Amino acid sequence: MARERVVSAESQELDGERSAHSLRPARMDDYIGQSDLLERLRIALEAVQQRKESMEHVLLHGPPGLGKTTLAHVIASEMGSRAYITSGPALSKAGDLMGTLTKMESRDVLFIDEIHRLPPAVEEYIYPAMEDFKVDFTVDSGMHAKVISVGLKPFTLIGATTRAGLLSHALRSRFGISHHLDFYDEEDLVRILLRASDLLAMGSFDGEVASLLASRSRGTPRVALRLLRRVRDFAQVRSRGAVTQEVVTDALSLEGVDQLGLDELDRKYLATLVDPYDGGPVGLEAIAATMGDDAGTLEDVVEPYLLQLGFLARTRQGRRLTTRGADHLGISLDTGDDTD
Ligand code: ADE
């Protein structure tokens, strides 16, 4: 892709993530949205604090950018402990986790992002760590091989995944709490944006412009905050810091973000469905090959929001553009039967 997606829900280190970090809520009371999950976590936290135990392992699943890493930090700070952050692809062999696991104190949090990409050898290695707070490792090889078992302090594993379906049953069943994070509604995004604009001292950012920005943030706080920073830059350079509806609209159109928060990649996906696939049904692999993009990326970062908008249907025969999607593109589908 020629340029980075401003609406990408994936985290982008180079895109001011350091400032994003300081916008993150540190405590549960500052965390906006996901109220069902927060309630479950509050109860679990209070119960284990009373019993002076570590929190159960937590599995968070759902589209990227909805605050899974943030929650790991929030849980750790509520327990007065530390969070260690890693990811499935970063752990290529069992030994990669050894240092962290043995260094962790009681009630510390180990956050593994993209846990569905954990190599099988590492996955097996963490089962006894999760269940009995111990790890086994083999020293020497052949006839001299010995298994040494090392005890760990009781810790909490928080696993995050965009594809819960890819987790083995064995891994999934070892989490005491499993929760699906949903897209945020506009009201919650407005609250998140107003909180962040306060922290960024953007004086002229009011509820009206927050609503406009929220409506284009595809239900995703990470997108909302990234757009907010683009708007802040634009306002600073073009309008002496004043953030009006017009400034927001101009800043977002410069970023190629439309009224619904769709960007070039989304539009390219929809355009590919139409031409050459006549609206589908067509397999994801075929769409990805035509676009020259990765099927996994499309499935994780493009499709969830198009499905949410009702522009896309996933059928047994493949992906299909819906009538609503066709209307948005200003075309008509002659396939008639629309079963979304
Ligand atoms: N910043 C990003 N996500 C947030 C959330 N859920 N609540 C408050 N601030 C946030």
Main structural class:
alpha/beta
What is the CATH homologous superfamily assignment of the largest domain? P-loop containing nucleotide triphosphate hydrolases
From the 3D structure, determine the CATH topology of the largest domain.
Answer: Rossmann fold
What's the tally of helices? Answer: 14
Helices and strands, in order, run as: HHEHEHEHEEEHEHHHHHHHEEH
Principal-axis shape: globular
Number of folding domains?
A: 3
* Poorly predicted parts: 12-18
Order of strands, main sheet, comes to: 2-3-6-1-7
Oligomer category: single chain
Characterise the protein shown here.
The chain is α/β, with parallel strands linked by helices and 340 residues long. The protein folds into three domains: 34-180, P-loop containing nucleotide triphosphate hydrolases (Rossmann fold, 3-Layer(aba) Sandwich), CATH 3.40.50.300; 186-254, Helicase, Ruva Protein, domain 3, CATH 1.10.8.60; 264-329, Winged helix-like DNA-binding domain superfamily/Winged helix DNA-binding domain (Arc Repressor Mutant, subunit A, Orthogonal Bundle), CATH 1.10.10.10. Helices cover 44% and strands 13% of the residues. The protein is built from 14 helices and nine strands. It has helices spanning 17-23, 35-51, 68-78, 98-103, 120-132, 169-172, 186-199, 207-214, 221-238, 245-254, 264-274, 284-291, 295-309, 323-329; strands at 58-61, 83-87, 109-113, 134-139, 146-151, 156-161, 177-180, 312-315, 318-321. It has a five-stranded parallel beta sheet with strand order 2-3-6-1-7, with helices on one face. The chain has a two-stranded antiparallel ribbon with strand order 4-5. Strands 8-9 form a two-stranded antiparallel sheet. Helix 7 crosses helix 9. It is globular and about 70 Å long. The model is unreliable at 12-18 (pLDDT under 50). The structure holds adenine.
